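Task: sequence design from structure.
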């Protein structure tokens, strides 16, 4: 029976020794730290994901800026091309206008020169007549005239030739001055100063006489002819 009494005691002691040891506070802190560490491990991927999201957001924000910059650059290029085209057109028009103006000025100068030359030649024809060549000299006057003046002179040409031949007259004119008074289209008016030296049979030699004539000229085709003559005192 003693053995039976000892058995429960041993069982109780063994039970005491075999029971799990109680956890101390230090062990509880270690466990808590381990659990916190386990919880903190997934946060690293979360932070990386957030960083990637931030980068993506930054890229999205930069994309419109790059597009706007490209648009601004393209706009500047278009404006430069447009400005260059406008300048080129303006310069072309200016050069064309200057060329046309130069041509018109040159043409006007040529026409004025023709008017003056016709007036000078008409004055010489009227004041240079030799009785030995009276027919040819008078014909030259008729050929260089037009309009009313030509008609009137043609009617008086024969009596004039007879007087020159009878007097055996000879006159030589020299142009001293000629200038354009007015011009309108194909017509012009000139003032011509002439020094005329005259000699005739039986008459004493006379000093040159100064004549002034207002001569009207007109362009007929490619020629300029005398349309009227008036002697001015």
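Answer:
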């Amino acid at each position: 029976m003693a053995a039976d009494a000892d058995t429960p005691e041993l069982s109780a002691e063994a039970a005491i020794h075999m029971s799990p040891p109680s956890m101390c506070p230090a062990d509880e802190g270690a466990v808590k730290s381990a659990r916190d560490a386990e919880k903190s491990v997934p946060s690293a991927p979360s932070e990386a994901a957030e960083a990637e999201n931030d980068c993506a957001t930054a890229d999205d924000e930069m994309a419109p800026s790059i597009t706007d910059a490209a648009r601004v650059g393209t706009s500047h290029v278009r404006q430069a091309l447009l400005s260059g085209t406008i300048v080129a057109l303006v310069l072309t028009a200016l050069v064309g206008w200057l060329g046309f103006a130069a041509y018109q000025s040159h043409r006007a100068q040529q026409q004025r020169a023709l008017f003056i030359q016709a007036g000078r030649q008409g004055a010489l024809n009227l004041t240079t007549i030799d009785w030995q060549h009276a027919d040819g000299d008078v014909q030259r006057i008729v050929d260089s005239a037009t309009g009313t003046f030509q008609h009137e002179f043609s009617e008086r040409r024969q009596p004039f030739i007879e007087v020159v031949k009878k007097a055996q007259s000879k006159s030589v004119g020299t142009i001293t001055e000629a200038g354009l008074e007015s011009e309108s289209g194909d017509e012009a008016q000139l003032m011509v100063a002439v020094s005329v030296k005259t000699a005739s049979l039986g008459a004493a030699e006379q000093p040159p006489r100064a004549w002034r004539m207002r001569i009207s000229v007109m362009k007929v085709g490619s020629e300029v002819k005398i349309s009227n003559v008036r002697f001015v005192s």
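Strands lie at 129-130, 170-184, 187-199, 209-220, 223-232.
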